[in-house]
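Question:
Write out your own:
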Amino acid sequence: MAMRWFLLLASSFRRVHSASCYSPADFSTESWPFCQVLTDSLSMYFGPAGDGDYMKLGLHAENHVGWSALAIGGNGGMKGAQQVVVRQVDGAWVAEERYSADYVEPHLQETQEVLLIFANESAGSTSWGVLLPTRSCKAGDRYAMEDVGMFMHWALGYSHAFSYHKERGQFHTNLVSGPPAPPPDMSSFPSVTFTMPDVPVVLGEGGSDAMNPYICGIFDLAEALPAGLLTTSKHHAAKFAPVLSSASKEFVHHMILFECADQVAVDNNFTHNHVIPNCERMVRGCQTSKWPWAVGGEDLVLPDNVGVPIGNGARWYALQVHYYNPSLVPNVSDSSGVHVALAPSLRTHDAETFGVVGGASPMQRDPLPPGQAEVSIPSAVVPTQCTNQWNADEITVLGVMHHAHLVGKKLAIHVSRNGEYIGEMRREKVYDFNHQSLEGSSIKTLKKGDELTLTCSYDTSSRTEPTAFGDFTQDEMCLAYFLHYPAQNARRSIFLRALGENRISLCSDPSQSADSFQLVQNPTQLLASAVQSTAPVLTPPACEPRGDLTSSSARDVLASMGVDVSGFSMDTSSSASGWIRAVAFVAVSLASWGVL
């Protein structure tokens, strides 16, 4: 079964910070609007400035001496991350803007768009602050500072010589609106848990690939629900938390919880904790995905007015687990699964996912040629004929997930409205198979009649043979999903063919069989239901910069922080050594500039 969707914690709540977060003397609430505690010894300070044209970014590292960095990323890994590294070079503090396209040493950006406000080491701890433009159009790879939740990273070095980090971490924040609040306490909520019953991770009879077993666990909700809760009643899942077995989690590629029709249990003699040793193709009638997880995924916490429907007459659930065991390690057993917290009362909105199936089968896509650093395939289009089937004029997007396999390089969903290009939903410069998650959408509202275009590219330079599209990890995919509310009857659009600029797609029709996803294996059967459209022309508007670090407005931002700008260099040009040496003062803090 093709991978449907993966989610990572994405909270829209904002935190009210205590004064203790601002205990370092270099940071004040007046100059640094937001503070986010990253670890017991690490805090980030940030906030927009200059009418939103600039972003202030600062770090305090307790008991640390050496280089330190903050990064903006499209996912939880290094691929596609824009870093700000602060360190000493020849006794002077420098701020460097770097970028990493892979798991290698991040390279210096071609141009430098970072201004070091201050940096110091005091009593064995490090503090620094920088100023960034909200949007730069200069050469380099950068993310615009938008009002959307996003991944960031931190890293600490062994010394001021820039080399491999000694510590790193990842976290979510919103640089414009502030950090997310801690997840609400749901320990008192009723809950259900679906876990594999210590299954041997081996290929079942009829399976295709010993390295890629697909195994399903079947669960009776009537057995799993707490006493007093009925399967005939509607419940709202407020949180999904993966349960991973420490001894086998390295082999778990993805998990999907499906809701099944009751007749399926009768036809297949299902019982609670029943195991299907081979379910590469999901059991017919178990097609409604409720929760997914994949490598890099964390908890999914829904906003407090939104829930994923559970029960409501549905009694049987199937957990499909795709294991990836490339070395065929023997004697592996697994008890992974999901813990579901149920809201004490029904919420206002049902949440659902919409999937853009741009390539999951060799019937949809030709194999990718080997040995090429950039292979793009024809776009998959969700035409207006499909989105006009939505039963709401507008839907709110909670997050977007991209999915490809090992050679996936770049995926994006583009939105067009009335023939006009609106933008890209999720910003992820480089796809990372090991860090798949649902992330915030720059476009928060979609409208009935919008056109969605999924683009996918690949790097096959490591392959010596063509790469087919299919379910297995060594195959490839081109998929994207977005979580939204209110729930719609139409749940997916399936790409069938590209004929020049024309696209043939299948709109998900509620009257169609629930197994329509599987029918993509033979799309000729679907042509009678397919629609034809022309691929929209994707012409993003010209980049409009926001914030000039050499301008008087940047000086005004610094002056408002108490910085004496009379002798402050605003030069952000690279030196001969390639370092940006914006003026910095060793062991000088904002306190000495009269900020506090």
Summary: Helices lie at 221-224, 262-268, 384-387, 552-560.
